[in-house]
Amino acid sequence: MGNKRVVITGMGTITPIGNNLSEYTSALKNGVSGCEEIKSFDTSKFKTKFACEVKSYDPLDYFDRKESRKMDIFSQFGMIAAEEAIINSEINLDKINKNRVGVIWGSGVGGIETFQNELINFAQNDKNPRFNPFFIPKLIPDICPGLIAIKFDFRGPNFATVSACASGSNAIIDAYNYIISDTSDIIITGGSESAVNETGVGGFNALKALSERNDSPETASRPFDKDRDGFVLGEGGGALILEEYNHAKSRDAKIYGEVIGFGMSCDAHHITAPHPEGEGARLVMENALKNAEIQIEDIDHINVHGTSTPLGDKSEIKAIENVFGNHAERINICSTKSMTGHLLGAAGAIESIAALISINESFIPPTINHFNHDEEINQKLNLTLNKYQARDVNVAMSNTFGFGGHNTSIVFKKYN
CA-CA distances (angstroms) from residue 120 to 68, 117, 125, 130, 199? Predict the structure, then answer.
């Protein structure tokens, strides 16, 4: 068991900057902002009137009408990403033991769109108030991995992880451990989210968590900038195929990289605010390095949580400096949330994929929208500002942190 290796053999995405893996890769390199004025509902009652929505999305491009009506949008995004990843992996579904193929999926809020719409319909229907029979199945976060398994007949471990914005990363970590423990040969993992609606925007506005830069939505997500004023809500999904190394080799699979370790920790500080000194973030990165059995000098790149909040960006940078010391200045750091916005429970999935893209394509995506540097953030750090940088990446780390103090770090390595 201790000698098992876990590799990534497939990836799929649907994001605000690209509706598939190829589009996502291109947009990351070109520094594309996915933020626009919200088109899906009337924002006149809200302080924030923009978000990073998936562009030109029509469920009937992917599902028949009957099928789409039984799924919340978060599940639709998850199904789309998972199917692309499975196709990308070139798995022959007729030749694998489906009892040893699982689906572990992350979502922070599940079917929040369904929850909102069903309550409104019930409250406003005086003649015959009733809930849709699919209300609960569409709502629960664990329905997405269930739907993926039903479609492909995967009969291995199947459940959802819920840890706010760390949900997708926790799913990947669980998938890794299920393969290491020889419970499964393959796990389809990742996360999906769709909270760009009245409930999502209104709720995060009430927390004062969202940017209110309505005069310039495309520049609103600006991690590490002095004038950052909150995160931008995003939506979408990302899927990764994690596979036991010998199983992947036996079918001559393309290998995108290897999961070599992970860390988890809790701030134990506040329900929404990070520890001001980044203690939880420091601990999770130290745990990841220890678990991966590597040195601080081995890390080439960190895709940071970097949400563009005044407190969060500073505390994460403090943690990086405390963990990596002088080596921090030699690491390419970036926040792809500057382009995608914050996909909540799907963030860890699409950002892990971004880290793997850096490993495979030898470039670091930019942290866009940087205009005025925050003087409290060390200017000697390479934050990959405004333009991608070419770099051979051997080892990359992806950080995601969630409300409740949940922290995750995953370490990926180039396949050798």
Answer: 20, 5, 8, 11, 11
